[in-house]
Design the sequence.
């Protein structure tokens, strides 16, 4: 029985000790022979739920999944073999990610494995909806895009203001670049779709650049 | 452009900090206040501050003495000419407008007028002044503490001479400040873009839960790299201050959902849990 890292198609990250396969390479046989799957795909909630359900139907493997763009609480409730969750795909300036572990064994495994990926976990009581860090930073970035589109200031000046006025580690535009605007868009869309709250509506300019 | 003489009107925390920064930058400062004794007290506080910095090795005694020489306390009636006059009085539109109208009559037309307002309309404040003054009127928004925080937001009004803004930008940068030029829009840059550091954290929190408050602060520090988490920062700033700014930015931008205040803010303000200054806010302080 092996451990696996599952990635998006066209993912180019290389991980040293654990075998990596893409979603399109996933077969029932591979799933059957897996004891644990570290799912680093970056799907939004519905696609993530479909993927986890697919794994769950072929395998009793423990799943630790990136849920930065998902309703983690709902998925944890639904899938007992979803033993861990994290915000690994959402760039952190501190090389850390929010993590949830259902039990101590998972917690230890996640700590050890994430350190191999140059990432330190910060464990939280529950993943909530898109964790905390991804949603707060996505909303800051979204506001920066809206402000720029309204002619408030240039991107450079908005980034300067937030770094030197309130000591942000990065300006919102630089931050969005590091995270990847596609990720930011996914978080905002997930929040918008699942809550129905118009506060999460992504800026048009952010959407255009992401796509 | 060379700014050699500055008038600072208002000697509260911001006015005193702005005066301190200019004095440290080699500029002569006339510090004044509605109440003369308050300005005198502010100068005394500057003395203490500089002596403290000398003891920490940040400045030499000679430097501190030079800074002190740069600061004189004046009544508004005794003000002499300057290159720049900045107000840092109470954040009230009528008070600021009256002050500028009085100063407009008194001071040479060439004196640049600036307001340290954190969100009032620059153009509206300038509107009742002489035409020439309007071209030399702008927002210069410093951040607390002004001697340490590098950012100054420059906010031109409708009539502000573009060359003036550019010249001031160059001057401030040469003196070590970082400049961001903002349109005359509610909250300018920082107070608007920062709103969801607090707002989205509150939405994530949902309801008052001590453990979750602490967890969110920890996540934003550890994972996000912020120096302080949103709740401990609100406690430091003052929950009432933060709530007021949130409401002002939300109303002035025509009530967008993404900027609306959260019920928890109002709840805490109503309960007088304002943060460190009342020894209770999101956290309790002994």
Sequence:
């Amino acid at each position: 029985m092996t451990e696996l890292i599952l990635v998006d198609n066209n993912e180019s990250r290389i991980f040293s000790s654990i075998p990596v396969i893409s979603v399109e390479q996933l077969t029932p046989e591979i799933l059957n022979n897996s004891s644990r799957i570290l799912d680093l795909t970056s799907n939004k909630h519905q696609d993530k739920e479909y993927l986890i359900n697919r794994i769950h139907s072929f395998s009793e493997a423990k799943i630790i999944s990136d849920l930065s763009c998902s309703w983690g609480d709902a998925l944890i409730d639904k899938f007992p073999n979803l033993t861990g969750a994290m915000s690994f795909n959402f760039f952190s300036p501190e090389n850390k990610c929010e993590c949830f572990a259902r039990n101590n064994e998972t917690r230890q495994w996640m700590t050890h494995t994430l350190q191999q990926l140059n990432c330190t976990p910060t464990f939280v009581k529950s993943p909530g909806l898109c964790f905390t860090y991804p949603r707060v930073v996505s909303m800051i970035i979204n506001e920066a895009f809206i402000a720029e589109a309204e002619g408030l200031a240039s991107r450079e000046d908005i980034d300067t203001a937030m770094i030197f006025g309130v000591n942000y580690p990065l300006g919102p535009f630089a931050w969005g670049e590091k995270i990847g605007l596609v990720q930011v868009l996914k978080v905002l869309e997930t929040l918008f779709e699942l809550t129905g709250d118009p506060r999460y509506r992504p800026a048009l300019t952010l959407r255009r650049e992401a796509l | 452009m060379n700014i050699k003489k500055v008038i600072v009107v208002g000697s509260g925390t911001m006015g005193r900090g702005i005066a301190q920064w200019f004095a440290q930058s080699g500029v002569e400062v006339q510090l004044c206040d509605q109440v003369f004794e308050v300005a005198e007290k502010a100068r005394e506080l500057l003395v203490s501050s500089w002596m403290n910095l000398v003891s920490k090795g940040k400045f030499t005694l000679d430097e501190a003495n030079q800074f002190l020489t740069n600061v004189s306390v004046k009544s508004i009636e005794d003000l002499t000419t300057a290159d720049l006059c900045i107000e840092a009085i109470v954040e009230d539109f009528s008070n600021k407008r009256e002050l500028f109208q009085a100063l407009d009559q008194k001071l040479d037309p060439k004196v640049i007028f600036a307001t340290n307002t954190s969100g009032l309309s620059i153009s509206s404040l300038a509107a009742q002044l002489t035409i020439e003054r309007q071209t030399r009127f702008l927002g210069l928004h410093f951040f607390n503490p002004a001697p340490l925080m590098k950012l100054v937001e420059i906010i031109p009004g409708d009539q502000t001479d573009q060359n003036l803004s550019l010249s001031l930008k160059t001057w401030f940068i040469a003196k070590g400040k970082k400049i961001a030029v903002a349109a005359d829009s509610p909250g300018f840059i920082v107070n608007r873009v920062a709103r969801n550091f607090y707002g989205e954290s509150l939405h994530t929190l949902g309801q008052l839960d001590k453990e979750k408050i602490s967890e969110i602060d920890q996540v934003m520090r550890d994972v996000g790299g912020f120096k302080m988490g949103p709740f401990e920062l609100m406690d430091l700033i003052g929950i009432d201050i933060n709530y007021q700014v949130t409401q002002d930015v939300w109303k002035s931008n025509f009530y967008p959902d993404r900027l609306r205040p959260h019920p928890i803010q109002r709840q805490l303000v109503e309960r007088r849990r304002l943060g460190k200054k009342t020894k209770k806010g999101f956290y309790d302080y002994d």
User: Anything to note?
Assistant: Chain A touches chain B through 49 residues (CB under 8 Å).
